[in-house]
């Protein structure tokens, strides 16, 4: 697919893996080769927009590769041996362990008795992780079995006793997704303080960072960071670099956050990786650039705006339509807020609005804006534009029309700018120069159900 990319960006696939022409399970080397091959064709000095799309696709593939790495490979098929008749002496049935006996009581339907018996076994200071998991599952089924302990208590015991086994970590990941507030709090707050291999701790740390960032729980991110910085393993420096980059993605928008300075100190210790891990250092430089611009905005006045920006920068590929609606709700439904964001357009806010509008469009293109024929878009522009030199007077009407017709604002601007009619080109240039138009159109489209 990548070798056949047309020059017209509108015909490029939106899926980053399809754009690079690689499989979703491609390794890092394959992703980098595909990226290098494309930028040789679309050089930044000759094709800046195409180069930017390729770079964004590369970053998206790298990020997905990091989050969704394949942990279990399918075993190779063993050769089929000739059937051999083997006579095995019958062994007496194995005696069940106490845990299995009490679990059988639960399977028979008596959950209360099974829980009471299993909890009696768990009175010891150290217990098998299997026992903690059985108690966890019983409280998942019926939380009223115990008014002293919750299922989170037993899952945390299982995590500790198993040394963060893959099975327990997967259950914890699901709890983080389903109940982030509970899964980030006690009894899990000291989870990363165990004396375990650093790479195993990092798996749990990344799960926690992702949800703490989405919940804007900066203090929890700081708490986990303090535990981990004293356990760094030289063999896991690259994972540590990824973790630091992700911390900045979520926290750079809080200019007075002391955690940023401590993360910067750790990054200085990893500068020897700059050549081999150029992607992550480039990403970190971009994050710091956005953070500098964010520091110029009053966080009390622009808190909803910065919150949307935080999520779009840190985790744009997993944000759902419903989550976007919740984030943009304070802006879309508040006329005063819309006017506030228009005032920052002449300053650094213009870059923010363009960035946010572009990301909203890219992530929601599959189900929000409709692709219109160029002639249809020209007709729509002539119908609505009136006097193009008075764009401020018609801006609200243009925005409402674009939302109602579900028009892709970037496509509409391109069609108008390439038209032979001078007033049409003026109309397109005014829309392009007003990124607040793109931002408000996209938030409006997200809010439409049709």
What does this structure look like?
It is a single chain. The protein is an all-alpha fold and 450 residues long. Helix content is 63%, strand content 0%.
Helix-strand string: HHHHHHHHHHHHHHHHHHHHHHH
Biggest β-sheet, characterized? none
Beta-strand share of residues: under 5%
Q: Over the alpha carbons, how many angstroms does the gyration radius reach?
A: 27 Å
Task: Count the DSSP helices.
Answer: 23
Count of β-strands: 0
Structural class: mainly alpha
Specify the helix fraction band: 55-70%
Distance between the termini: 32 Å
Overall geometry comes to elongated
Q: What's the rounded overall pLDDT mean? A: 79
Question: Could you give a quick summary of the protein structure above?
Answer:
With 450 residues, the chain is mainly alpha-helical.
Lay out the secondary structure.
Blueprint (H helix, E strand, L loop, with lengths): L15 H5 L7 H14 L6 H20 L30 H10 L3 H11 L7 H13 L9 H12 L3 H13 L1 H5 L13 H17 L3 H11 L8 H15 L6 H11 L9 H17 L8 H12 L6 H12 L2 H9 L5 H16 L9 H12 L5 H15 L3 H9 L4 H12 L1 H13 L3
Salient structural properties:
mainly alpha
């Amino acid at each position: 697919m990548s070798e056949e990319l047309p020059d017209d960006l509108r015909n490029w696939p939106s899926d980053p893996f399809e754009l690079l022409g690689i499989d979703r399970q491609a390794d890092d080397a394959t992703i980098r080769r595909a990226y290098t091959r494309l930028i040789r064709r679309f050089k930044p000095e000759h094709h800046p927009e195409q180069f930017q799309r390729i770079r964004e696709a590369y970053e998206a593939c790298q990020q997905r590769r990091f989050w969704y790495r394949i942990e279990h490979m399918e075993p190779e098929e063993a050769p089929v041996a000739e059937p051999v008749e083997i006579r095995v002496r019958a062994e007496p049935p194995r005696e069940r362990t106490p845990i299995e006996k009490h679990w059988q009581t639960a399977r028979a339907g008596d959950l209360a008795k099974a829980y009471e018996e299993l909890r009696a076994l768990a009175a010891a200071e150290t217990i098998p992780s299997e026992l903690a998991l059985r108690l966890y599952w019983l409280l998942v089924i019926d939380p009223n079995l115990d008014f002293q302990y919750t299922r989170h208590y037993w899952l945390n015991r299982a995590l500790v006793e198993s040394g963060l086994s893959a099975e327990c970590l997967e259950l914890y990941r699901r709890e983080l997704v389903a109940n982030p507030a509970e899964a980030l709090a006690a009894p899990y707050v000291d989870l990363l303080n165990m004396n375990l291999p650093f790479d195993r701790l990092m798996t749990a740390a990344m799960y926690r960072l992702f949800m703490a960032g989405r919940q804007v729980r900066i203090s929890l991110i700081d708490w986990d960071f303090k535990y981990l910085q004293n356990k760094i393993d030289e063999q896991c420096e690259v994972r540590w670099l990824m973790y630091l980059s992700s911390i900045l993605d979520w926290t750079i928008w809080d200019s007075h956050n002391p955690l940023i300075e401590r993360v910067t100190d750790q990054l200085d210790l990893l500068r020897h990786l700059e050549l081999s891990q150029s992607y992550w250092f480039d990403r970190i430089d971009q994050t710091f650039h956005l953070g500098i611009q964010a520091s110029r905005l009053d966080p009390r006045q622009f808190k909803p705006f910065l919150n949307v920006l935080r999520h779009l920068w840190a985790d744009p590929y997993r944000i759902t339509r419903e989550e976007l609606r919740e984030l943009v709700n304070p802006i879309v439904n508040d006329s005063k807020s819309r006017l506030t964001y228009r005032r920052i357009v002449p300053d650094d806010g213009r870059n923010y609005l363009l960035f946010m509008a572009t990301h909203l469009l890219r992530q929601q293109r599959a189900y929000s804006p409709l692709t219109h024929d160029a002639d249809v878009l020209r007709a729509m522009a002539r119908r609505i534009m009136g006097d193009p030199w008075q764009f401020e007077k018609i801006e609200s009407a243009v925005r409402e029309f674009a939302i109602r017709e579900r028009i892709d604002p970037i496509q509409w601007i391109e069609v108008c700018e390439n038209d032979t009619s001078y007033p049409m080109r003026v109309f397109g240039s005014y829309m392009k120069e007003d990124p607040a138009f793109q931002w408000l159109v996209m938030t409006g489209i997200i809010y439409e159900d049709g």
